[in-house]
Design goal:
This protein is of the alpha/beta class. The chain has 13 helices and ten strands. Helix content is 36%, strand content 14%.
Length: 323
């Protein structure tokens, strides 16, 4: 739990890192769901899993680069990978801290126990509605995941394996976001991450009007200041608009995600961001050090001209988005 309070403090007193400290590895783009809000169909990527031999080679190369933390996933469902447990086991055998995000539907008690035995460091479950809402509006099937969340909480050692929950704010669920946080806090989840759809998904019946969304986040930030929850609750307003962080990133000219994480896509190329899976910096196999990668001419050009390359994306900025 101390890790998450430290994370919260670092978000407030943010300093731009000299180089990324975590790898996001696109191990799988295939999924057992087809959610309305998911942009993977628009990214022109192959909806398939990473070849395991390439995955193994990638991990060994990242290990030599002295990377310590890895988020295994992609635009699909990582538990849908044909060798899911082998992915986790190999990463842990190489002493990575290992995390992944899941819609939770394919997980069960046996799998949870196996993951805990392997030494999984953290899991993030996607839940967009409180338990009593039965109509699923995004493609996420929420009701059974609440049950699996409780099961995982009953099995884990809180000091060893952390549990977060992601919630996407939409027109259909904006009224229940605080209720979701209340329920998660009561269950002693470690962190609730709240976010809205990227501007690219600003479609009818999905995105909440900006002023309404902003007011929701203001209310949540006020509740946080008054110690309403024991867990960490993270909103776009708190992540990107508060304190020094917004100035470090030039009021939205830079994206914090691209300064903290590196994305390695399904075919072994380094890219700056999950939303730019085909914007290749170089093959990971050509990289001998993180310094070499960070100072690669294409990476430096991307950082200098990020506003141009990202072309209006507000995934990490929470800009005004009403048409």
């Amino acid at each position: 739990m101390a890790r998450y309070w430290l994370d919260d403090l670092q978000r407030i007193l943010f300093q731009i890192p000299n180089k990324p400290n975590m790898i996001q590895l696109e191990a799988n783009n295939a999924c057992n769901l087809d959610c309305t809000m998911c942009p993977r169909h628009e990214l022109n990527i192959d909806l398939d899993e990473m070849n395991f031999d390439l995955y193994s080679d990638t991990l060994h190369r990242l290990n030599k680069l002295n990377i310590k933390e890895i988020d295994i996933g992609g635009w699909g469902e990582i538990t849908y990978h044909s060798r899911f447990f082998d992915l986790i086991k190999l990463a842990k055998s190489l002493d990575f801290k290992v995390y992944f995000t899941s819609n939770g539907l394919l997980l069960n008690e046996k799998m949870f126990k196996k993951l805990l035995d392997i030494g999984l460091d953290g899991i993030t479950l996607s839940i967009d509605s409180i338990e009593k809402q039965t109509k699923d509006f995004t493609g996420h099937i929420n009701v059974p995941v609440w049950k699996k969340l409780r099961l995982f909480l009953s099995l884990r050692d809180k000091s060893k394996t952390h549990l977060k929950v992601n919630t996407l704010v939409q027109k259909a669920n904006a009224h229940e976001i605080i209720a979701i946080s209340n329920a998660l806090d009561k269950l002693e989840v470690d962190m609730h991450i709240i976010f809205g759809p990227n501007i690219a998904r600003d479609i009818d019946n999905l995105r909440v009007p900006y002023q309404e969304e902003y007011k929701l986040y203001e209310t949540i930030e006020s509740l946080k200041e008054n110690k309403h929850w024991k867990m960490i609750v993270s909103t776009p307003l708190g992540r990107y608009h508060k304190d020094k962080r917004r100035y470090h990133f030039m009021l939205g000219e830079r994206c914090p995600q691209t300064w903290q994480n590196i994305y390695v896509n399904r075919i072994g190329y380094v890219t700056p961001c999950t939303l730019l899976p085909d914007w290749h910096i170089d093959k990971l196999s050509n990289i001998k050090s993180i310094d070499q990668l960070w100072n690669h001419p294409k990476y430096k050009d991307f950082r200098r001209n990020q506003k141009h390359y990202c072309n209006g994306c507000d995934a990490m900025k929470f800009d005004k988005h009403d048409k």
